[in-house]
Amino acid sequence: MTPAKRLLAVGLAEQTKTISVAPPLAGIASIADTPTLRHVARVLLTFDAPSWLSIAVSPRGVSRQYIPTDVLSDLEWLDPELDDMLVDVFRAVSLSPGTEIRRRIGDAAEAVILAALRAAGRHATHVSPISDTFGYDIESAGPPMLRLEVKGCSVSTRGSFHLSRNEYNKSQLFGEEWVLTQVVFRSEAFVSAVLKPGHIEGIFQVNARDIALAVPPDTTSFMWTDSAMISPRSTAWRPAPYTVADVTLPGLAR
Q1: What is the value of pTM for the model shown?
Q2: CA–CA dist 225, 165 (Å, integer)
Q3: Strand ranges, E, within the chain
């Protein structure tokens, strides 16, 4: 896609009989000095937020190892203000758990667990594509019966996850059968076109009982109805009883 078509696609240019820039760019000075170019970069990052932004950036700062090498090389002219700019852009766009990169991470994590279970000789059924109402992603007939809710994360975000109210309710309904499983991806996974065992730091799990201890109770004035970020105590996590399968899967950098 040409730069002009990209500007049209993200709403930074308008085409009638001629092509004109949209208001966010219209007021920028015509002189291509450094402050002007920095402003252009900020606008472009905000209106066309890259898929790696929600992984590489948090309100606490920037983890540059999650930025593709070629992209980071293109952005380094913005130093020493680059990190502050990326944090500002992250806050401005307010990326949600439903963004494309998080969907890829979730899909990859589920693929890792399916492969691991099947390599361990267990019959595993991928139920989440059928319906979200199950409250978990993968079902494996016993013994023991397993209902696995799968989350993917980076090394820097391990130990926390978003949980929907339905997922929580099903965890309490099924008790020991329901397990939260977290696949921890190393930084290289986020810039790779394929995933191999070496891209995975490990597979860890926490049970429904420990999740309940981390969830604030409903009261007459507060009820958790949608989703929440849950952080069980660190001692609640255990390595999964199966290992990463020796398979190659679609990567996160697509």
Answers
A1: 0.66
A2: 6
A3: 13-15, 19-21, 57-58, 61-62, 124-126, 138-140, 146-154, 161-164, 178-185, 194-195, 200-207, 227-230, 238-239, 249-250
Strand order across the beta sheet in which 200-207 lies: 124-126, 138-140, 146-154, 178-185, 200-207, 238-239
Contact (CB, 8 A) for 165 and 100: no
Amino acid at 56: A
How many CB atoms are located within 10 Å of the residue 41 CB?
18
For residues 116 and 193, the model is more confident at 116
Phi, psi values for residue 184, rounded to 5°: -100, 115
In whole angstroms, give the CA distance from residue 125 to residue 206.
20
Specify the pairing of strand 178-185 against strand 146-154. parallel
Size (the chain), residues: 254
CA–CA gap between residue 241 and residue 179 (Å, rounded) = 12
